[in-house]
Amino acid sequence: MKITIEPSEAAFDLAAAQRIVNQIKEKKNSVIGLSTGRTTGNMHRKVVQLHQEEPFDVSPTTFFGVDEVVGVPREYAGACYTMLRTELADGLGISDEHLLMLPTQSDDYPAACRQFQAELQARGGIDLLILGLGENGHLGFNQPGTPFESTAWVSKMNPELETRIRRETGLPEEHPLGGVTLGLADIMQARRIVLVAKGRHKAAIVKKMLQGPVTTDVPASILQRHPDCEVLLDSEAATLIGQEVQEVQGPSYLAPFLSMVFLFLVIGFLTTVNAQLQGPLQSAFLDRVGSLRNTLATLVTFSWFLAYPVCGGVGSRWIDRYGYKGTLLRGLGVMVAGLALYFLSSVYTVAYPQSALAVSDVSIPPGFFIFLLGSFVLGGAVTVLQVVINPYLMACHVNGTQPIQRLAIGGSANSVGTTIAPYFVSGIVFGGVALEQVQVSQLRLPFLTIALLILLVAAVLYRLSLPDLAGTRAADAPLERSVWSFRHLTLGVVAIFFYVGCEVCVGANINLYALGDLGLSTSTVTLMATLYWGLMLVGRLCGSSLRSVSPRAQLTFTTLMALLMLVLAVAFNQPWLLVAVGLFHSIMWGAIFTLATTGLGHYTSAASGVFMTGVVGGAILPLLQGAAADSLGAWRWSWLIVLFGELVMLSYALVGSRPKEKAE
Ligand code: GLP
Prior knowledge:
Elements: E1 2-6, H1 9-26, E2 31-34, H2 41-53, E3 62-65, E4 67-70, H3 80-92, E5 99-100, H4 109-122, E6 128-131, E7 153-155, H5 159-169, E8 178-181, H6 184-189, E9 192-197, H7 203-211, E10 229-234, H8 243-247, H9 254-276, H10 278-285, H11 293-351, E11 357-359, E12 362-364, H12 366-395, H13 403-429, H14 444-463, H15 487-516, H16 522-543, H17 551-572, H18 575-585, H19 588-597, H20 604-613, H21 617-632, H22 640-656
Parallel strand pairs: 1-10, 2-3, 2-6, 3-5, 6-9, 9-10
Antiparallel strand pairs: 4-8, 7-8, 11-12
Bound molecules: 2-amino-2-deoxy-6-O-phosphono-alpha-D-glucopyranose.
């Protein structure tokens, strides 16, 4: 059996549709059998779309349904006939003459089945059969226990489907229902079979049918004996099959994957460098601002994260217009511009040491504002890059990995960047001098060097071939509705708002807390920040090996633990306990992103942009916390803001992340 694993649901739908289109194009008068259900709906619609984009002749083709519901009107929305008609046949302009179906109502089913088989034979027999897979292993309506020799017949239904149909149609218990279906022997007669399965809920049965024994307990296992059967899966449905099976599969996007991982490191590094500059900049620029010291210092982080809501949409539009690679290169260009502004802020302040802008009763050097602008531009660059990197990491399949693992590996690289950043700031940028002796001129050389490095990275990426990811862009198909109408995505944006807010509050403000409230030394607070980011790294490295724990369970556990640490930290006024929160923050990004974008298909690139708007939490929460600390006169109780954020994430894990579309 050939196994094909597609990196995303959208790529899966497209690949499945292409199997049908190619069959129609390759052989006139093809006879193609189709299955209905959640797996195949988008695939059928995709066939119609491909046909509209580039018309081909479907008039000689015969389509037929593998099975049909017995005991309901044919017009019922859950009848296979009506599904195939609305999803496919109407769009292709196919008459009932070319859409053969078993009857939903008949006085003599055996005769109807014989007639159906004869009709298929008369048209040359089955060329291609697309089969869905029941969660209990059923094929068509052949439930576990069906003999392999069975030919077209009326079977019982699986109980869940029967309950759903009774609920939807209002048919009473005494009204008999069933499923009329090609038998397993008929199915094995098809010249070619493509079994399709997508989604995590199919992973267990996929493993059983592929790697378990051939047994009537798992009707689909009979396909192991078919001479020309392909099993087409998305990466979620392939989760549990052994690596030895996955490893023979392509394509594997290792080089693009590693590039994204490296860029994630750069992003983490610059984000934390920026946050770590708050302390030194407070000392270098803000010695004449009185009671606004904390509020103004936290503006450095604020302007960085403000860029996320502003630029998230830009990232999505660029992907649609310039593709993933074009967007990456542009993002890196913007990054160099931001670094140039840091450089300029230093040059200006050294050249005009006395100039100052009076804001109410405080005076601030203009160089500080240039720095804030640089921070905003860099934040914008990082936003655009992340809009590309997150879906890319999820979608670019690398043998032996799952999407959430790849996000965790990206996250680990991000953490390597954040972990080295505090030492870069205190040891390299400011050469280990005490906070009071920090000079603005020290900002120049390091940032110029980084800018040159980024240009080098851009040159390498320019030469590297980065495949565009099929079916993930809004440009691949028109968006029929607003991406905000997916409730689990919208609430995911809220969750990511609080996640990033909490992550940055601890990462950026732990320094100001330990310095201001507790008078700890610069080297101790640098160590705290490094350990916080370092624990995030440890957590992400461990997280990348968590193949089998669901993102929901991961998010529930980690938010609960973070809550515990926060309560203890506030109760005992103990910043070291906040350091431990890093461990639990580590896998939250990946878990929330995965939960929020599950099942979004060609909405994925738009969703990824929308998702980035939530990152503005990194601007707002730390600033709020700074203002709270200024007004309370100390940082200790301001951590309750973070505590609240963790509660919101916990509720997302438990309730909000369950897909349910908002009423339109
Ligand atoms: C249903 C249908 C099958 C279909 C299967 C999978 O009962 N009779 O033809 O292939 O179950 O459905 P889904 O794709 O919704 O999981």
